[in-house]
Amino acid sequence: MQLLRGLGVVLAGAGLAAVAAGFGGGLHPALDSWAVFRVPLALGTAVLLLVLRRPLWAVLPLVLLLAAAVAPRVLAHWHPEAEPVPGAHEAVLYQKNLLFRLKSPDQVVQDIRARRPDVVTVQEVSRPNQAVLAALREDFPSQNFCDFREVGGPAVLSRWPMVAGSAVCGPGLAAMQVKAPWGVIWAVSLHLRWPWPFPQPGQISQLEPLLRDMRGIKLIGGDFNNVAWSEGVARIARASDTKRIGHEAATFALPHGGLGVGIDHILATGGAGRVTVLDRLGSDHRGVLGRVFLAP
């Protein structure tokens, strides 16, 4: 029994250390990877400490860590919408990782048409999935597809006309300027690699100068493969001068059918708007529909 109790104390200490490590993403990308598991680690450690009957031993650091871990979720649900500034215009963005081996594009195509967004951002547009772009070309004539990896590339579509010569491709990025009825905006689709030890940090370093060069209002949708409170998402937001919109919500199961994590995000200049999480429609990601308020 003493051995089990001692092992439990060691595990609890390791859990607290792991949660704390997740706050150090700005110091090293390895620590940013721990941020993905911050909430379940904090909750699991709390349960373990209660079982060990050691609440006073770790009450202060546990409360602080647990509050910091849960705060982005809780506060977002208390304030799920940012109010538009006077004179702002609404733009609707449909974000979806299609899954490179999507069996049938029909459900996705029908859902996009039914929701009538202004901009569509999709990832894993493999050769078979290019049928989605073809099927939507009449509704969304402005399209920019950029090849990326063996699973397919990102694409951005819009019902608004593209600014001639504005299409941009980068590693996991497809972007273009479009002429909205009230002004010109950048529409960007992103697909980031998995965090460290995978090459997401280096990929972001390549994307940052591209995003900084995009002057003006920006609307970004993507599979970030990282959670809302991660340094990876923060780096993209800083480079693009945007803010993440809407509440944090699980869009992907890791592993499939298991822990739900929110890794599909919409960012916009000003950060005002709301999101709705959609069905999977044959993919392993849920779609995200964002209603964004963009100031001219």
From TrEMBL:
- Protein's UniProt name: Endonuclease/exonuclease/phosphatase domain-containing protein
Question: In what residue span(s) does the Endonuclease/exonuclease/phosphatase domain sit?
Answer: 98-285
Task: Classify the source by domain of life.
Answer: Bacteria
Q: Which UniProt keywords apply?
A: Membrane, Transmembrane, Transmembrane helix
Q: Which residues cross the membrane?
A: 34-52, 59-78
| SUPFAM superfamilies in alphabetical order | DNase I-like
Q: Does the keyword Cytoplasm apply?
A: no
UniProt GO molecular function: catalytic activity
Keyword hit for ATP-binding: no
- Locate the coiled-coil region(s) and give their ranges: none
